Amino acid sequence: MDSQLLNPTSLKSRFTARFLRALTKINAPNPISSSSPTPREIFQRYRRIKVAADKSMAYSVRSRTTWSRATLSRLRTRSRHRRLASFGPRSSVTTAAVLKKTSSHGKENEGGLGVQAGELRELVPGGEAMDLCNLLDETAHYIKCLTTQVQVMKTIANLYSLE
Amino acid sequence: MEKDKAFIMAEVLNRTATRQPTWSTSGFVTEMQSNELNCATEQVGNYFLNPNWDNSMDQSDPFESALSSMVSSPAASNVLPVSGENVMMRELIGKLGNICNSGDISPQFSIKPNANTGSANASFNSTPLNSPPRLNLSMVNLPAPFSADPGFAERAARFSCFSGLNDPLMDSFKLSGNQSIKVDGSQSIKNSPMEANSPENAESGVSKEDSSVSQQIPARNDAGTRKRKSIPRGKAKEIPSPAAADAKVATENGESNSKRSKQDGSPGNGNEKQSKENSKPPEPPKDYIHVRARRGQATDSHSLAERVRREKISERMKFLQDLVPGCNKVTGKAVMLDEIINYVQSLQRQVEFLSMKLANVNPRSDINMEALLSKDMFQSRGSLLHGIYSMDSSAPTFPFGYQPQQGLHLNSGIPNATETQFSMKTQGFQLPSIDGFTDANPHVGSIWEDDLQSIVQMGFGQNQPQGYQGSIATGQVKIEL
Questions:
Q1: ipTM score of the complex?
Q2: Is A37 on the interface with B (CB under 8 A)?
Q3: pLDDT, mean over chain B
Q4: Averaged pLDDT for residues B339-343
Q5: More confident: B351 or B445
Q6: Is this prediction's pTM over 0.90?
Q7: Residue B296 half-sphere exposure toward CB, CA atoms < 13 A
Q8: Of the candidates A10, A64, A120, which has its C-beta nearest B102's C-beta?
Q9: A with B: how many residue pairs have Cβ under 8 Å apart?
């Protein structure tokens, strides 16, 4: 097989490093001898891990793509909501309003692809405010990052299941 | 080292900020820094993009060539959104910057032929044309180490023309660029930005830019279009700039002037089939990019714009087709989009499933993450690793008649083909206490492969596949080497 070394600054390495750090942080509080965590704990860990995965991927991409920015802002507002539960989702309302303004004029030239484009917009974070052309670019990058994420997480999961 | 570079970058940008107050540098600072950090290499000089562009294009990296083909064809008409949708610009440039880092795309994606290399260079070199502020900032103050990318010289020269920068820094830069050009023979060889007649420019987009420079300065028209003809082009027009007001006035001037000046030569060169242009001489800046209608098609501006957009979209769809596995037979945009949507959904679900799995699997000891982080672990033979590890998980279930040392070989000699450094690192592992296994046998080497085969065959049946989707099943199938 080829013996090329991985680029240490590649997306994969960046994501892996961040994700592993987050994982060790999440796993750290658990005493090693704990036998069966309750389902609730498992669920909490699952949520945290998922957030960590998305966050580390978005951070690895920095702000170069719209979807990463959207993910980061979404994560931040969500964490803010959790802390300021009493205040209510004011920020999300305003962002939704802004998005509605910007999204309308970019979507004229979809041809007959309006339905699928809409679905794609829902899937790709931050896709609401983009015209189809940019949406496809974002989708391409998003797919690439998702596959990296899945690959790395698979490897890590297998590593963990070693023990 | 990355921090130093970022610091230097910030300094450079701050210095240039004073010279060119029209350009807002804050956004560019972050962008440059991100590009810088993302493309960090040992060469200090290359602040902008990958100096190994040529090398990386030689590796048949599917994403790179595919993305470059995607980028190149809109750029083949030599204009990236001049509209200055800066977001789009940054994304594309960021992607190009990321291309240098994406040497690890999963091998299951189809590999595009490397015929795009030439046009990729074109696109690569032409994208900076449309973001002169960024590049100019990056290129000032870097005299010597531009041996990697001689295209910088041309760009620098062009930008100096555009912005009227004539300080000695730029001159020295041009000189250094000239020197660097001779170093790298693969790129077009020019002795000065003025010349535009290098025969090697057939494939390099640098020729286009050089011709633009030459047309700007000595107003030579012939060379540019000759070069342009040899560059394969799918479209007959440039992308109209919808929101021209976004771009800075200076860049707008420069870009539209260069485009028009490039196009000027085409009447004189009647062989151009798909020449697009206006035969206007370079003028005071306009807001539109002029497009010529194809033969037998409607000519009003709306339909032209529409057509351009449609072609852009189909370009991207083609690119996505390569990304999404199993989409080659699909024809039609709607079905293609459905496939893409399904694929994205499945990927997202996979991520969720994997994070659930990770939440369930609680590591008993935090198995040395440093070794895991070593780059050797995550080489492209990810499937092999999967195979190894999923196999290892079943090792304890072997009947104990089986020599337990083998299991240790598995654990310690993890990726077989890695350097000895790594295998020596693994000796330092505190292996998880697998019942009945003793110390790690430091002798990894040849025993590994034979046992691997036998273990694979024995363990494969016992290994219970997780309830994943099809991709994981294929990952396990790959175990049998």
A1: 0.85
A2: yes
A3: 52
A4: 89
A5: B351
A6: no
A7: 0
A8: A10
A9: 236
